[in-house]
Amino acid sequence: MTDQPHTIAACEREIRRLNRLVEASLMINSTLELQPLLNIIMDFAAELTEAESASIMLYDQDTNELHFVASTTDNPVAPRLLRIPVPLEGSVAGTILRENRVIVLDDVTADPRHYRQADSMSGFATRSLIGVPMRFKDHPIGVLEAVNRREGHWTDEDRSNLLVLASQAAIAIENARLIQQLQKAFNELDQLDKLKNDFIAIASHELRTPLSVILGYATFLKEDAQGEVGEHATAVLNSAIRMRNLIEDMTNLRYLKLGEGELVREHIPLAAIVQSAQNDVESLAQAKGHILRVQIPDISLVVVADRIKIGMALTNILNNAIKFTPSGGQITLTCERKPQAVWIVVRDSGIGIPQDQLTRIFEEFHQVEDHMTRRHGGMGLGLAIAKAVIEAHGGRIWAESEGPNRGSTFYINLPLG
Ligand code: ADP
């Protein structure tokens, strides 16, 4: 009976300890940035073990050393500690990591493994410590230490508190590092993307002026010249037109960032959009001896869309169908009314698209053929632009193909109204 108040007090203490561990776990698991995460781990380590200070050392595989990465935030010597490497041999922390075990020292000064250099460099006097290894998927990642117990000796409770913290910390640290690496890679990509866009904007702007001069003179020449000179002028003009189309594609890159707000929506008969795209590509189709068929069963069908942008998307798809179909092929465009949408389907009898490329062809600059060996012109932007435009309209675009030389089919799903 006399034990009872003591037992109740012990239970209450245990509940408080477990609650604090749960709180630590919640905070650790909700922190994604590395440095704040390390600070949280250490603050809890020091508090739960009643220590003056706590620190985290992470293992660096390249140098085979441990490095202080964090030390309790209110500790004035912490910044100095952070630059000190700790060797794996001849240090307590190194032994903890190498041998994967907890080390409890009530009197550090008596232990020959104590790495005194850290103390002398930081000016911090370590009297006692308890350290536990941190491991992730069987790999050592570092050591968590509590230093200088404020009163008495280290207890079993201190040991189990640190072990719980260390196991949570190891996972959280690895996740935070992964996020850091991803963020870095993402920033680099972002930077590259910006460079690419700036380059394209400058190049297309600078090319446009001389090109319009070439186009102008080539048109005059073609009108006036006859015979061989006329043929040469036509060749120059055709190449200049191709170049202008490439530059237009580059300029249209900005459509990739298109938001809904940038669309100029109006009610337009679907037939008008299709007719205009057909006119754009008719001469190209004829030049390759293709049969181009357009079927619009419901002529009264009206869509709410940006006439110019949807027209451009459709023209890009028709141009591809013509380009990637050997001479004398068949291209059909059909429209189908569904309950909430209209489907525009462009089918060709061309070279087809491999299954593993059906999604990738919609990425910027992606082309199925290697750019060194490719036989077809273009820059790999047409479909990326078409996709961006159609998605800005709330629609969807995808491709299907039966395989090499069995043609391709492009589906555009455009919401009605
Ligand atoms: P580009 O035509 O300038 O190369 P696109 O973005 O329009 O760029 O198309 C990307 C790639 O998708 C093309 O290079 C081609 O490999 C493939 N592709 C597109 N349309 C077709 C099609 N109808 N048949 C076969 N392959 C196609």
Task: Describe, in plain words, how this protein is organized in 3D.
- This protein has 417 residues and is α+β, with helices and mostly antiparallel strands.
- It folds into two domains: 4-185, Beta-Lactamase (2-Layer Sandwich), CATH 3.30.450.40; 261-415, Heat Shock Protein 90.
- It is 48% helix and 21% strand.
- The protein has helices at residues 4-29, 34-48, 78-81, 92-99, 116-122, 156-224, 227-251, 270-287, 307-323, 382-392; strands spanning 51-60, 65-71, 85-87, 103-105, 129-136, 139-149, 265-269, 291-295, 302-306, 330-337, 341-348, 396-401, 408-415.
- The strands form three sheets. A six-stranded antiparallel β-sheet has the order 3-2-1-6-5-4, sandwiched between helices.
- Helix 1 (4-29) runs antiparallel to helix 2, helix 6 (156-224) runs antiparallel to helix 7 (227-251) and helix 9 runs antiparallel to helix 10.
- The relative contact order is 0.07.
- The model has no long low-confidence stretch (mean pLDDT 89).
- Adenosine-5'-diphosphate binds next to helix 9 and helix 10.
Highest CATH level, the class of the largest domain: Alpha Beta
Protein structure class: alpha+beta
Unreliable stretches covering 5 or more consecutive residues: none
Helix count? 10
Number of strands: 13
How big is the Rg?
A: 35 Å
CATH superfamily of the largest domain: GAF domain
Give, in spatial order, the strands making up the sheet with the most strands: 3-2-1-6-5-4
Q: What quaternary form is this?
A: single chain
What share of residues are in beta strands?
15-25%
CATH architecture of the largest domain: 2-Layer Sandwich
* General form: elongated
Ligand kinds? adenosine-5'-diphosphate
Listing every helix as H and every strand as E from the N terminus to the C terminus, the arrangement reads HHEEHEHEHEEHHEHEEHEEHEE
Number of domains: 2
**How does the major sheet shape up?**
6 strands, antiparallel
Instruction: Work out the helicity level.
Output: 40-55%
CATH topology of the largest domain: Beta-Lactamase
> How widely separated are the two ends?
81 Å
